[in-house]
Amino acid sequence: MALDYSKKVMDHFMNPRNVGEIENADGVGEAGNPKCGDIMKIYLKVNPDTKIIEDVKFKTFGCASAIASSSMATELIKGRTVEEAWNLTNSAVAEALDGLPPIKMHCSVLAEEAIHTALNDYRKKNGMAEIPMEHHED
Amino acid sequence: MFVYLDHTATTPTSPEVLQAMTPYFGEIFGNPSSVYSFSRKSREAISKARGQVADALNADSSEIYFTGSGTEADNWALKGTLEKGKIAGKNHIITTAIEHHAILHTCEYLKKVEGAEVTYLPVDSEGFVSVDDVRKAITDKTALVSVMFANNEVGTIEPVAEIGALCHEMNIPFHTDAVQAAAHLKIDVKAMNIDMLSMSAHKMYGPKGVGALYMRKGLRPENFVHGGAQEHGRRASTENIAGIVGFGAAMEILQTRLADDIAVNSARRDKLIAGILERIPHAKLNGATGNHRLPNNINFSFIGVEGETLLLDLDAKGISASTGSACSSESLDPSHVLLALGLKHEMAHGSLRFTIGRLTDDKQIDYVLDVLPEIVARRRAMSPLWEDYIKGEK
Predict the structure, then answer these.
(1) How far does the CA of residue B9 sit from the closest CA of chain A (Å)?
(2) Looking at residue A117, which CATH number applies to its domain?
(3) Residues in chain B within 8 Å Cβ distance of A138
């Protein structure tokens, strides 16, 4: 199937922001599985005093929209507090990309889920209770 | 730079074919079914094309029926044969797990609407169907065996002559979907024991919108398209004369150059395969090798990378290719063919197919070998699967 991606999706796919890993990250989260063809892994560096996400990196296996969603999601939470980051929704990611094809919306859901998993990892490491989160099949 | 490496998807109509077709859009427009002498030219043109297709297959021209596509030919062969078989109490079809959707979805329809029973034979890791599996699957209810001549995704050439011989021994009609094979291999329906064979013109530098079904004399599956008495009363519709003429011309031209095409394409195919294996670590060739593989097919999986990303990266470099990844389909499942070969989901998602042809030259092969390693390496560097894989290796 030919997919017509927006210019923003293509930009974030061809030149993804924040690719990589963070050593001794304060939070690491992974979402997706090889079966569905998308895996996202997010690394967070959080300022212990301000609770601001000072750095964020990702690694993603998946299609163009999965890579673009990861790239955009990391851009959107960088410089935000952990609370603000938790409130980032998948539709905000998709909107920031000027939309995703309907069949690709799950990519933005995965980005939200990977961030939530990373934030919960951060909470756990800092002695806070994890926030219950929805798990998506794809 | 435009590097078209998707000849299995379709091919351009060649200038010679287009030239042969042109008069039938304008000056020679008569309806072949009309009585007056002007329409005879149209009848003669169709008759010539039927002969050209028949000659290429070592068939009789009365055994060639033009259709609207290869898909229609498949639909006709399966539906028409099962409907005929049901009258004699036979409602079982044997086919394979790696057929084109034109076969698989028709089988699903027949299960649902006609109560057919369908056996989908497995394939081995290179995509081969076992003749013995066909033998074991045959029952006294078997109405038809349909096994593709060569697979469109991975290029594996099936043992059709042996399967055909078995079917003749058991007195069961044998159909083969040769939509890809007919464009790349010499086919002799008599020597290969084929009763029915589907083809499509646009895979062999003919026009889109025309296909054909070869049916051995004496076979009478039910009609599929009902109406007028065209195609010996067996496939209604006013003939697509220009398309049929184009199909005949394309088929004849192909036969004159087939031996050279096979040699040239096989050499380029093997150069590309060897080059990829040499330059890209952990690249897996999908399908068979050598003479058991279509001369124009190259299909790889690259651990840790997803196919659609490779297609888009290649497209940015001017290269057109194809993938079995879910991301290029309507569903989230990757290619049924690659899964049937036993590939893990992530490997099936990471497949990349190049299919070469008349638009290909050696420079293009070198160009692909220049740009592909960097593309794969860059995408792997951002893949958590690749990271895990490399860690597992150490």
Answers:
(1) 12
(2) 3.90.1010.10
(3) 332
